[in-house]
Structures are given as C-alpha cells and as structure tokens.
Specification:
This protein has 337 residues and is α/β, with parallel strands linked by helices. The protein is 40% helix and 19% strand.
Length: 337
Amino acid sequence: MLIFAVESSCDETSLCLMKSNGEVLSHKIASQEIHNNFGGVVPELASRSHLLNLQSLYKKCLTESGINPRDIDIFCSTCGPGLIGCLLVGSTFVKSLSIGFQKPFYAINHLEAHILSPTINNKIIFPYLCLLLTGGHTQIYLVNGVDNYSLLGETKDDALGEAFDKVAKLLNLPYPGGPAIEEIAKNGSIKSVSLPHPLEKSNTLDFSFSGIKTAVNLYVKNNIINQKIKNNIAASFQHKVTEILKHKITLCFNKFNNVKIEQLAIVGGVGSNKYIFAELKKMCSNNNVEIILPPKDMFSDNAAMIAWTCIQKLSLKNFQEGLHFKNDPRLRVGIKK
C-alpha cells in the first residue's frame, strides 16, 4: 500500500510518499524563509508560499520515488490544528488528488502525528510519556496506544517555541528563535540573569511561559545590551525553561508511581534543542526512564509523520474517510483532561 501525505499547518510545506511498512520513498520539506523578515510567521504569506511550493514538490516527489500517482492507494493531509489558510491550501490540494484518482482521503491531526512520530523508529513500551514542544503547543500526554491519549498538562499562554521566538526578537536575533538562542547560549552563564519559574509551587502539570518572556523584556529595557549580555540572557532563559520542563516531568513520574513508565518521548521542533535534550536525559537516567526521539527529519513539521500516523490509524480498522472533514485550526487530540 502506498500513502501520499501533505503537511501544511504553518510555515513548512512538506510532502511524503511512504509504504505501509514505514519505508519512505520520497520526503520533501520546504521552509519558508520569507518570514525571517518579520520575526514570525505571517499567515497570508505562509498560505501563498504553500501554493507555490506544493506543485513543484509534488513533481519532485513523484520523480524521486518513480511512482505513478495512479498507483497511490491513500491520500492524507494535516487538517488541524494550524493556520486555517495553510490547512485549507494543503488539504484542498490533496483532496483534489484523491477525487481525481478516485482514492480515499484521510484527515490527520498534526499533534497526534507528532505524538506517534517516535513509534516509527523505536521499540515502544506502552504507556509512555510524550513531551510535545512546538511553536504553537507545549503539552504532556500519557500515550496508552494508538488513538488512546490522555492530556496531562499544557501551556496556559505562550508555547515554548513561541517563547523562544519572542525572546529572540527582543535580542534582535533571527527567526526562528530557537536555534539562534541555543547557539549564543553556549557562550553565556546560566545563572547570570534571574528569571521567574511560573507555577513552581503548584502541583499542576500545566505550563506558563509568558512571565519569563516579560521578565526578559524588562531586563532588556533596563540594561545596556551588548553581545555578552545577550549570551547571558539566552543561557539563563534556556536554562530556566529547561528547569520548568524537568520539574513537570518529575511531577509526572510522581503522579504515575503506580504505573510503570519506562519511556519519555520528546517530539516537536523545540525537542531538537541539544541543551534541553541533554538535561532531560540526565534526569530520566536517574529515574531509569529511556528517552525516545523521532528520526531527525521528523522533529519539525513534516509529511512523513502525517503518512505514518495515517498508517497507524488505518491499522485500527475504525478510521473513517475524511473527504468532508472540515479543517479545524484548534483541533484537539484524544481524551480531555
């Protein structure tokens, strides 16, 4: 069985052709550099860029894989959450192909795809904890199996990726902010700038990052900023948000002391941050928990995770065709808290 997938929820246009055993025949990702000029994603420009990228990437995908599009068995795309214009562009493109070739179309949840991305390259032990860190979401899930998720906590304001971008903008660093902050933080001191730890005294598994961003903003306004200061702010910020993540995961371990948790999955674009990974790995090692990650090209928004999720959902035999599924920019995953 051949699956064709498109991911277009935000500022990456991605297409993938995958076999039902997970073998990738072609996987293309085009990042939209136009947003660098604005320090963040401009929805209208993102939608237009998807329109420009889809046709060329589609041809490249077919050429690289050697696949005749008539031989594709399943078409799928991200239908939420995300920017509504971007979702519409991608899903309309794929729905048109499915209608033209008279093949089924399936709507995929972008967040569920991130959650399941480590299952393609790891031996999974259910249940596992999943720490989802993207530009738009920061969440913790207990994953009991495919289509069986419990949301344990999520951000009440800014997502972690969004906080990285906003702090980077305050420091006049390029977009996206995560890699830029990670790079200059190597030359800074993690204890040089005092930053708050929101919800530290609470047992909630929810997150809050807007207060840290505000603290950085005030520090920048009240000090003369040179490169050394920038390095210190970046290091202190990165360290503080990592401490918050460690604190929440520790609360999870304590909360589920009667449930054997052997794995922690870190997914989403922010999960590729090497400092965050190293610190979480130390903490997990002390708790005899294995950290699992998706393949390197499945951290950021990508179509391979969309195709893989479609395959996993189809294996349950209760996944309904979604040709009439309406794109939902606030689409949720699984069980409510």
